Every structure is written in C-alpha cells, then in structure tokens.
C-alpha cells in the first residue's frame, strides 16, 4: 500500500465528507477491507486530490454524474452533503440537478431532487452548535 496515496485519500475524504466518510469506510472495511482501501486511494487519493478543479467544482461534477446514472441514491446523498461541506449552496445543488433533466430525463432529476430535499430537511433538523 502506498501510504502517501492513502493519506492523501483520507485527507480528501475527510475534507469532503467529514466523519460520515470515515463511518462508511469503516462499514465497508468490515465486509470488504480491500475495497474500502481502493476507494480511499483511487477516487480520493488520486482523483479528488488532483489540482485543476476545486473541491466544489469536483462535487458539482460528481452530483451531475450521479444524477445521470439514476441509480445511486446513497452516493448522491453523500455527495450532496459533501458538496455543502466544500462550499456549494443548496441553490447550486438544485440547479445542477435541474440541468441534468436535459440529459438524464425528468425522472432522474425528480428522484435526485427528492434526495436533495431529504438531505436539506435532515440538516434543518440538526441544532446549531
């Protein structure tokens, strides 16, 4: 294992997803530790850590991609939360999802908007520290 790559990945994962990302990796580690390591190293250590796009721009691209897939609500939920963590506004997230109706169709956009609505409502219930 390349410890630098893994460390970069952990840092990117924490920056985007906070403690939630650690929980997902721990849960995956229980059933597929090699897969959890690959997620940390490749997407987060190699791709999300690259220069050229800001974390916010990468999250916008990720949301757009997940909406067009149309079958990844768990990942979409995580990346909507992650996009808020790196500076996207709720309005920007909604606009990205609406834009994807042109390419992925209205059902995919409606499903994604419902995921976003759930995330926003959950955040609104959390008392501020």
Number of strands: 0
Tell me the major beta sheet: none
| Broad shape | globular
Average pLDDT taken over every residue = 93
Oligomer: single chain
> Approximately what portion of the residues adopt beta-strand conformation?
under 5%
Task: Assign the structural class, choosing from mainly alpha, mainly beta, alpha/beta, alpha+beta, or little secondary structure.
Answer: mainly alpha
* H/E element sequence: HHHHHH
Give the terminus-to-terminus CA distance. 38 Å
Query: How many separate helices?
Result: 6
**In which range does the helix fraction lie?**
over 70%
Rg of Cα set: 15 Å
Low-confidence stretches: none
For this entry, give a set of tags.
129 residues; mainly alpha; 6 helices; globular
